[in-house]
């Protein structure tokens, strides 16, 4: 007899609840978060294997992925109806996200030189 609290059962229940209870917009943002995280991991692994010769280029790219991840988490928090941001519209949240991305990448491009 299998344990109902085993890791496999917990993951299965988590996946079932996520697909059933999470709105589509949140799933899209989560997919973007996974993409950004994998990009940061790939940059870090590349830096560890190949080296950091143009260190400012690696640092700019890594800061860009971390900043993009943080901004996307903020967007996810604001558009999720369960988090209590009812007074902020989804359009305003997305506009803030885009504006902050422009500022972030302006700083990253200036850091590259």
From TrEMBL:
Task: Name the Pfam families for this protein.
Answer: DAD
What pathway is this protein a component of?
Protein modification; protein glycosylation
Q: Which UniProt keywords apply?
A: Endoplasmic reticulum, Membrane, Transmembrane, Transmembrane helix
Q: Which InterPro entries match?
A: DAD/Ost2
A GO CC term attached to the entry: oligosaccharyltransferase complex
Give the record's GO biological process terms.
protein N-linked glycosylation
| Domain of life (superkingdom) | Eukaryota
The record describes its membrane topology as: Multi-pass membrane protein
Transmembrane residue ranges: 32-51, 57-74, 94-112
Localization (cell): Endoplasmic reticulum membrane
Per UniProt, subunit arrangement is: Component of the oligosaccharyltransferase (OST) complex.
**Record family assignment:** Belongs to the DAD/OST2 family.
Q: What does the record give as the function of this protein?
A: Subunit of the oligosaccharyl transferase (OST) complex that catalyzes the initial transfer of a defined glycan (Glc(3)Man(9)GlcNAc(2) in eukaryotes) from the lipid carrier dolichol-pyrophosphate to an asparagine residue within an Asn-X-Ser/Thr consensus motif in nascent polypeptide chains, the first step in protein N-glycosylation. N-glycosylation occurs cotranslationally and the complex associates with the Sec61 complex at the channel-forming translocon complex that mediates protein translocation across the endoplasmic reticulum (ER). All subunits are required for a maximal enzyme activity.
Name this polypeptide is given: Dolichyl-diphosphooligosaccharide--protein glycosyltransferase subunit OST2
* Annotated source species: Capsaspora owczarzaki (strain ATCC 30864)
The taxonomic lineage of its organism, from the top, reads: Eukaryota, Filasterea, Capsaspora
